[in-house]
Amino acid sequence: MTQLPPPSSVKLGLVIDLDTCVGCHACVVACKGWNTENYGAPLSDTNPYGADPSGTFLNRVHSYEVIPDEGPAQQVHFPKSCLHCEDAPCVTVCPTGASYKRAEDGIVLVNESACIGCQLCAWACPYGAREADPAEGVMKKCTLCVDRIYNENLPEIDRTPACVRTCPSKARHFGDLGDPDSAVSQLVAERGGFDLMPEQGCKPVNKYLPPRARDTDEVDVLAPLLEPVAQDGKGLVAWLDKALSALPKGGRA
Amino acid sequence: MNPAPSVIIFTTLSGMGFGLLFWLGLGLPAPTGWVAFGFFFVAYALAVGGLMASALHLGRPERALKAFTQWRSSWLSREAIAAVVTLTLGGIFALTAIFGTPLAPLGWLVSLGCAGTIWTTSMIYTQLRSVPRWHHWTTPAVFLTLAGGGGALLANQGLAALVLLAAAAVLQGIAWFTGDRRFARSGTTLGTATGLGERGEVRAFLPPHSGSNYLLKEFVYVVGRRHVMYLRIIGMSLAFVLPLAILAFGLTHVTAVVAILAHLLGVLCLRWLFFAQAEHVVGLYYGARRTA
Known about the structure:
Chain A has seven helices and eleven strands. By secondary structure, chain A is of the alpha+beta class. Chain B has one domain (5-286): Formate dehydrogenase/DMSO reductase domain (Formate dehydrogenase/DMSO reductase fold). Chain B has helices spanning 5-25, 33-55, 75-98, 104-126, 138-154, 158-185, 190-194, 214-219, 225-248, 253-276; one strand at 201-206. At the A-B interface, strand 3, strand 4, strand 5, helix 2 and helix 3 of A face helix 3, helix 7, strand 1 and helix 8 of B.
């Protein structure tokens, strides 16, 4: 059913730490690997070894540069996947009932055997979280690794989404954002986690943690070592230094 | 947005087809016998032809019947139902007309269904907050007046065509004038998209991959600004100015054909612009709209 269920008390989702993400794309690879071999149709590649390769991905990492009014620019790596919104427009626009939000944990999924590939859900999503798979003709999206998180055949440590499990800098966290006492909710509260595009009114469950402000100290730790060593020199070198410094622009090119 | 031929042809042809059926349902004109067959044939060829074109854009057209189930929430589902109900009732009405006893109340119901179908089609686009240019009352207003005006042209209703096409031209002008500013007014920027806007100016530094992808092909379509101006002039001239001039001098069979063909080409041009010019907010993540 493509009507949204009443808000669930359990809201499973991700918390992504923009402070610690190093932009290694390991989550992209882990996601593609797991979701090609498991839940639903594989994530196809088009012309993978040709001149113009492209493929279906459920998670992509962008990089942005933030230029503050004062101080140095900062680079931020920015992973983006489905945010499992509470008011998910991709669900209500679906004409077939293939797109749905689970009442029990809030995960947004696609029933691939009912999807007609009209792509209206991808149009409705402001985040670009859904992609039409050209080989299968159906819509693909992040499942929050629904086939891992409840999977009792996996060791307990592996019962988290593939992207979270693989992240080498612990920039991705998985948990219940509907429970204010959960580790992820605590993290969001402590670090000032925020929503993407709040003005679009989708109420995303996934939250992002802000990067730390850059240090305002000396940028280069070696800078002190580059100071002139002898301030009160004598002899020929001191004379040369004084004579050159007296030239216009202090002798610098 | 990617101006896919299937959706442009679908909205243009179905619009005119349901527009013609609207006037036939009202009994304007009220032909019988073979003349009725001719009128209804044109209306059905356009409406059904357009709907079949829209099915081409589906990834899994063999499951299209499932699209009739979610009318509670989905405008696309509502449109599918409205189209099929209208065409079924319209078929019965056409038979009564062809055999000489048109059932007027049934015709009125068909006309209502035609208006409903056009309206639900336009709401598919209007509902999308992610495409600020479409998220406005001018979208259904332009769709409805264009379909009504084009249908009146086909139905040889000179005065109605004159009024509706003039109204459509004005509404299209308003849609362009306000639409050009709507993305900026929506408040969605790369700053809100990344949540980093309060820290400074955000600039897309590296894309997620070196090649293209589905999102870029479907949502980030860039039209040259100069082309837009020329295409708007061409679309306005063909869809409105030429047919209105011909209507003002009175329709003959030859000039009516010229007016109809000009209008059809003009609407195709306007629809191409409707899709090609619409910007989806996801483009921000890829560095589109750097100055906004």
